[in-house]
Amino acid sequence: MATQTGIKAFLNTKVLAAALTLAAQLPLAAQAADLVRLGNLKFAHYGAVAYMKEIAPKYNLKIEERTFAKGLDIVPAIIAGEIDVSASALEAAITGRASGVPVYLVGGFAKGGVRIVGRPELNIRSIAELKGKKVGVTRGGPQEILLFAELAKNKLSWSDKPGKDVLILYMGYPDLNQALLTKEIDAMSQSEPYSTQAIHKKYGSEIMKPYDTALGEPIRALVMSEKMYKEKRDVAERFMQCFVAATRMFIADPKLAEKYVRETMFKNQVSSEDYRDAMDNASFTEDMTLSHVQLTTDYMVKYGVGRMSAPPAAKDWVKLDLLEAAKKAVSAK
To answer: How many CB atoms lie within 10 A of CB 89?
Structure first.
């Protein structure tokens, strides 16, 4: 009896060993890919993040992308557990964290991408000339805080109610262009490629790229749920490697980046000239710094952006270890 039991145990061990050997020999694509649900926005400089889903199988991932109208719209989806990683304005990420959304900031993916544009017939050449004007902006992104920083620098007051030097009108990104075209607003602080399109279609003219305050160029944020960061470490590591690889591909091959953004993201609704001019005012990146996150948070508090009762300290939720490991892993390949 003991001999039979020993033989059976031996055979079971051999079968298990053979199965493990076979599994190890199977290509990654033959194994079930891990699903990552990605929240993204439709802007030219968000292209590398969107492209991740195209190369995801190389990292045994399936990236399911969901596009939102603006960064703040992603917050409820993260709270509901419907999104694992999101790409958005840093300001939206900070606002989300301040309201208790369980996320970590794990990287940056784009710089710049904001332009202040006025109606050509008004011939506005400086921020100071916005006094007495109506200026449109979308709430919760870099275009809002950069506009306020420029107004403050020029000693102008502002409010979304009459009585201040500048009247602020809040609306969605595409609506801003329409409002400028129909002369409902005099100027707008807008993201790319929408600001460039207004200029090319001649119903907008550039006032400035608002990067001459302490904030400098804004960096967009890649944010990951705490659950994924803590409980799906292997998936998180592969996701970040995919992110770094996609970003480096777009930086190394501008033609690939343009083709993907114009044809796949915008369905040829953005011309080559629109794209190139937009990306002259933006760039793809992998990086984010603790100091930039903290400075942005401080400015949001200063100007009342996000209306945060408990602004988060950058050191408590910025986790760049996955990014640094991913950069080394991709560079080693």
So the answer is: 29
